[in-house]
Amino acid sequence: MHNLTGRVLRAADPGWADAVQGFALNADYANNVPKNVVFCEDAEDVRNAVRYAKANKVPFRVRSGRHNYEGYSSLVKDGLIIDVSDINFVRLNPDRTIAEIGAGCDMLQLFEILGACGVTLPLATGPSVGIAGLTMGGGVGVTSRLWGLTCDNLVEVELVTADGEVVRANEKERADLFWALRGGGGGNFGAVTSFKFKVHPVNNVAIFTLSYDWQAFPAVVAKWQDWAFQADNRITTLLQLLTTQQINLQGQFTASDTDLAGIQSLLGPMLDPSLGLTSVNIQILPAVFANRVMLGVDPMQPAWRVDVHTDDEMFKSTSAFCTSPLPPEGISALLQGLDSPPQLSAPPMQPSMVQLLGGGGAVNVPKPTDTAVFYRDVRFVVQYDAYWSAPEDADPTITWIENLRSNMSPYTLGAYANYTDHLISDYLTAYFGGNLARLVEVKAKYDPDNLFQFPQSIPTSMPGAQK
Ligand SMILES: Cc1cc2nc3c(=O)[nH]c(=O)nc-3n(C[C@H](O)[C@H](O)[C@H](O)COP(=O)(O)OP(=O)(O)OC[C@H]3O[C@@H](n4cnc5c(N)ncnc54)[C@H](O)[C@@H]3O)c2cc1C
Q: What's the gap in Å between 466 CA and the centre of ligand 1?
């Protein structure tokens, strides 16, 4: 007999509507309503939930911050959502080098708690993104060129496996599983209850935003893609290219207090007047405040958020990687796409855009086979973000952003596993490249009955292979 333990919600319970909603507003929640949502409070509750689902043959999803772009962690018709967001503790070891983090922590919590203790790790820039999905898909953060992806800082994972046991995975115990959990994507190998991460000391940091004239688009992109890749590892940047014809270079310089003033000269190549620079804003702030600015929360009331579980409007985001600089034709294709967004019947609250997330530095140090993150020689990630607010604008907007992605494909490869896109037909190869076969092997070993699944999950045998 296996029972659900923790806070179990059914359709008639208060809080149900919120419990079944994911962050992505355009997913089909109405036709994929679960029977139960269990908010687990500890590893025991997670274990009971996995055992219950297995014994009763109930389909289930595991969920942390709900930020899956397709809403996959909240869509399971008549099934069970195993939600770990109440497992949100942070424990720092006495010498402040290792943090044990509950699988339900979100970014704002982590930046605040770790920052108050003078430490940090590469974390995402969305305040309510969950640590579980972020880490297992890789994790790109504002200190990634210095300390690598989020998953590169992982030293141990505690999880409930398909056989209903609470186990640990690290370099020595279940090393194959530990390998897969660093980049193989959430929801595939077990239900994670907590992580142990290496953390790094931080005090003040410099954050900056430089803006450029749209006319200088080709020159800015060309200069940035060389500069950002080779810049001092303590600088991580992203270049925002908005359909409103604005260009913003945002970033963080994470250095000792004595070195921080050097940011002006390190940014030198991007301050060149020939690039059509229109504004420069550089601030040196305590890391906790800098993080609040970057996360877009109120710097004085950081816990204030409209809704942690849903976005304010509909979006479609997708991605690809660039391992070499975009040639002039690639830059032109990007400009052409951004210059011809669809005409919308209602303006979205934020403009559609392409963001280029600078790689190089520590991100490129591990080999493609060291973790499940295959794309390591990345110069930058291309993040395509399209927004709309009226339902009738969905089709043209999605078509436009997918066309842009496709028009850029001669110059890019793959896709980031954390930016799930149901329109990528060969998604397994796109997300995992040459690591797919090894991920399938680990899946078959730890979850032979494919208990942990969702529409883009890793199968137990290679696609097309005879079983
Ligand atoms: C606003 C926004 C900002 C973002 N910013 C960044 C960024 O700066 N850098 C970056 O790299 N990415 C970023 N992302 C992408 C983000 O990393 C992914 O969407 C990530 O998978 C979200 O994790 P989650 O736990 O919030 O989501 P969920 O939807 O809860 O989970 C994502 C996946 O992981 C699985 N999962 C969740 N919890 C567990 C668990 N405990 N055990 C096993 N599997 C689990 C789910 O089943 C699902 O498949 C952003 C996304 C959004 C929407």
A: 32
Question: What angle do helix axes 328-338 and 217-230 make, rounded to 10 degrees?
Answer: 120
> Atom 37, ligand 1: which residue's CA is nearest?
63
Q: Cα(156)–Cα(294) distance, rounded to whole angstroms?
A: 28
Nearest to 326 by CA among 420, 437, 218, 171: 218
Averaged pLDDT for residues 340-365 = 94
- pTM of this prediction? 0.97
| pLDDT tens-digit readout, 377-415 | 999 999 999 999 999 999 999 999 999 999 999 999 999
DSSP string, 429-445: HHHHGGGHHHHHHHHHH
Query: Nearest Cα to 341, choosing from 415, 270, 350, 48?
Result: 350
What pLDDT score was predicted for residue 378? 95
Closest by Cα among 244, 241, 424, 198 to 316 = 424
Please choose from 83, 129, 381 the residue to mutate so as to test ligand 1's pocket, defined by most ligand atoms within 8 A of CB.
129
Q: Is the CB of 162 under 6 A from ligand 1?
A: no
DSSP reduced 3-state for 318 = strand
Structure tokens at 442: 């680990």
Distances (CA, A) of 2 to 6, 36, 52, 56, 229: 13, 15, 5, 9, 52
Cβ of 71 below 6 Å from ligand 1:
no
Is residue 306's pLDDT more than 80? no
Q: How confident is the model at residue 67 (pLDDT cuts 50, 70, 90)?
A: very high
Q: How far is the CA of 238 from the centre of ligand 1 (A)?
A: 19
